[in-house]
Amino acid sequence: MFARRLVLAVSLLLNMVLTYNMIWGDHGIIAYKELRRRCDSLEERIRQAGESNLELSKEIRLLQSDEKYIEKIIRNRLNFVRDNEILYIFPGETHGDSAGVLPNETKN
After folding, report:
1. Using a CB cutoff of 8 Å and minimum separation of 24, what contacts does 21-30 make?
2. Cα–Cα distance between 43 and 13 in angstroms, integer?
3. Over the stretch 31-77, which tens digit does the pLDDT of each residue have?
4. Is residue 9 part of a domain?
């Protein structure tokens, strides 16, 4: 009778320890959920970086091959004008950055 109770007590204690480790341990459910959240966050950052990379690749291709795009960029960022044009810059109005740099160029 005593041996049965001892086996039962040890079994219950073992089950409690295993349950605790399964939920709160280093490899438990709570740790898994945190890792899953971090993984999802990193996957989102990777997706955003891929989209940004694709946009930059398109811009590089245009800068290497499209003269009209190059002219547009020069005119917008550096405020260049053609011979027969006059450029008016009004205070408080921003077209690009005042230093000739667009907002997305200062991210890195």
Report:
1. none
2. 40
3. 999 999 999 999 999 999 999 999 999 999 999 999 999 999 988 88
4. yes
Domain count, the chain: 1
> Quick check: is 105 in a domain?
no
User: Which domain range does residue 20 map to?
Assistant: 2-80
**How high is the mean pLDDT of the chain?**
86
What's the burial of 62, exposed, middle or buried (CB within 10 Å: 0-12/13-18/19+)?
middle
CA–CA distances in Å: residue 81 to residues 84, 107, 108: 8, 27, 29
**Which residue bears the tokens 């020069």?**
74
Q: Are 61 and 54 in contact (CB under 8 A)?
A: no
